[in-house]
Specification:
single chain, mainly alpha, globular, 79% helix, 0% strand
Length: 430
């Protein structure tokens, strides 16, 4: 166990020295394995990880879903999703905020990325909010928290990575994220209602649209909604696998963007380069995390940690709850994907040994990541919005996010207490 603890300390030390986390994890994992098992086994193990990751068929789902999201974003769908949502609910007090959350949920069902959702919606929604006199605190809090829906509502890149690392069915993970995602969106909207009731100056009501205008707005997004239904419906119905669904989604998104005249050769090149860069980053993290996980598994830490936890005398649910508290704390100071890749080798075997469903635990992990993405001081969504909206101070963004952090914590508690919320839809799958 001592070797693993030294390894974790070394990673944190290298991170403080601004060494890229993928490099830190890979280096510590390789050196640790070399010292524990010999340099030849270490080199063989690292080479095997690189080869298996690079040629794994199941991993092709990652670049395909990334490509799907980039094509749809290039087609300019975000603005139309926001407009469609606004025509229906914009006339309520805080209607623009509600519309932003609804649009985030819709866009998240396409791109699978929290940061991309928050970044896109900040460009689309903030000018309208500013024009109507919304406070910066509410505006940025809504965009940051709404952006987190991008990793809960399927397809979700984080769920794909979790499914691959833990060998959990990705289709069932996607199904498990639907109801929690919708529940989160509803509770975020409820928070907006409370905030605007306590301080009406936060968010004035917008204009009311006719039903003809509402149906006209919906016609602008029917194509991509059909694409999402086909892809996710096919996965849930067992018609095709998640990888096949990702391929269909990427091809459909390409045709959608092409049909709308939004895909010149320059745009196509840009989309392919962006997708390749994101994929390379994720694969580098996956390879490095796997090398480090192999090192941890060579030590006695997983068994020692399991024995220590089981002898504490806590109930299984309390043990998982304690894990969630650890995750929430780590999420305030660590990058979320790295946090998950570092801790899964430790926590996942314990959760499975306690008899819990790995699909349910995957949903809890995603919810914890959502909390981390909007929790100061290192919440990534907050800094993305700050970068895109330089006129808004970081202090205003931090103040605006806290009510929504509390909402996500409450949602985490509900999912922890009622596993059926996550597991009902997966139980219906073939």
């Amino acid at each position: 166990m001592t070797e693993a603890l030294i390894g974790f300390a070394a990673i944190f030390a290298l991170a403080l020295l601004r060494v890229p986390l993928a490099v830190a994890m890979g280096l510590v994992g390789f050196v640790g394995t070399g010292l524990a098992r010999g340099w030849e086994p270490a080199m063989a193990s690292a080479a095997q990880v690189v080869q298996e990751t690079g040629f794994a068929y199941t991993l092709s789902v990652i670049p395909l879903f990334i490509l799907m999201g980039n094509f749809v974003a290039r087609a300019g769908l975000a603005h139309e999703l926001f407009h469609a949502a606004y025509t229906f609910i914009g006339h309520f007090k805080g209607g623009l905020a509600h519309a932003t959350i609804a649009a985030c949920a819709g866009f998240g069902a396409i791109c699978g990325s929290s940061i991309a959702t928050a970044a896109t919606m900040s460009k689309v929604a903030y000018p309208s909010m500013k024009k109507l006199g919304y406070s910066d605190e509410l505006s940025t809090g809504v965009m940051a928290s709404g952006g987190t829906l991008g990793i809960m509502i399927p397809p979700s890149t984080i769920m794909v990575i979790y499914g691959i690392v833990t060998e959990t069915n990705i289709g069932k993970l996607f199904a498990a994220g639907v109801i929690p995602g919708l529940l989160t969106a509803a509770l975020l909207m409820a928070a907006v209602v409370v905030m605007t009731s306590l301080d009406p100056e936060h968010a004035p009501a917008g204009e009311r649209y006719t039903w003809a205008e509402r149906w006209a707005a919906l016609r602008g997004i029917w194509g991509v909604l059909l694409l999402v239904v086909v892809v996710l419906g096919g996965i849930y119905g067992g018609i095709f696998t998640a990888t096949e669904g990702a391929g269909i989604g990427a091809a459909g998104a390409f045709l959608f963007a092409l049909a709308r005249g939004r895909l010149s050769m320059h745009d196509l090149k840009t989309v392919l380069i962006e997708s390749a860069r994101t994929t390379a980053m994720l694969f580098t993290l996956l390879i490095a995390a796997t090398v480090f996980a192999n090192f941890v598994n060579f030590t006695t830490m997983p068994g020692d940690l399991k024995n220590w936890i089981t002898h504490l005398g806590l109930s299984p649910v309390m043990i998982v709850g304690a894990m969630m508290v650890i995750y929430v704390i780590l999420g305030t100071v660590m990058e979320e994907l790295t946090m998950v890749l570092l801790t899964i080798p430790l926590f996942f075997p314990i959760v499975v040994s306690l008899g819990f469903d790995p699909v349910w635990f995957g949903v809890l992990i995603v919810m914890v990541i959502q909390i981390g993405l909007i929790s100061p001081p290192v919440g990534m969504n907050l800094f993305v919005i700050n970068t895109l909206l330089p006129g808004v101070g970081l202090g205003s963004i931090f103040r605006g996010c806290w009510p929504f952090v509390l909402v996500l914590v409450v949602t985490l508690g509900l999912l922890l207490a009622f596993p059926g919320v996550s597991l009902w839809l997966p139980s219906l799958m073939k």
